[in-house]
Design goal:
The chain contains seven helices and no strands. By secondary structure, the chain is mainly α. The longest helix is centred in the middle third of the chain and has 15 residues. It is globular.
Length: about 120
């Protein structure tokens, strides 16, 4: 995201098609910016796959389930929860953690096992 113009990240109106394509490239741009550091595959998988979804609806590659690394599955939940529980520039309210978890449990995008683990951890 650091490689995208700040005006894109903070904007409140929808992206046009060109901006949306650029936004969807931030995972690949991020990966290319750290290639020379020799990070472990687990780290580069997270950079590239954190917006993928188990049902294939994510980006940048639209990969599914077992093709997504376990670490990326954890980070995709954390990233989504962070978005849902944070106030947004477009004025969308920040939801409470319980509400956010309930929201992501209803779909097929995330691992139910990992969501349950998060819930159990929060209840301790």
């Amino acid at each position: 995201m650091l490689l995208l113009p700040k005006s894109m990240i903070e904007r409140t109106e929808p992206f046009n098609k060109t901006e949306q394509l650029l936004f969807y490239q931030h995972c690949e741009l991020g990966l290319s910016s750290v290639k020379s550091y020799g990070l472990p595959k687990e780290c580069t998988d997270i950079i590239l796959q954190h917006h993928e979804r188990l049902d294939g609806s994510g980006y940048p590659k639209g990969i599914k389930e077992n093709k997504i690394s376990q670490s990326s599955k954890i980070v995709m939940i954390a990233d989504t929860i962070d978005v849902i529980t944070s106030e947004r520039p477009d004025g969308q309210r920040a939801y409470k953690m319980g509400e956010a978890i309930a929201m992501i449990k209803t779909g097929t995008e995330f691992s139910n096992e990992l969501i349950s683990l998060l819930e159990n951890t929060l209840q301790q």
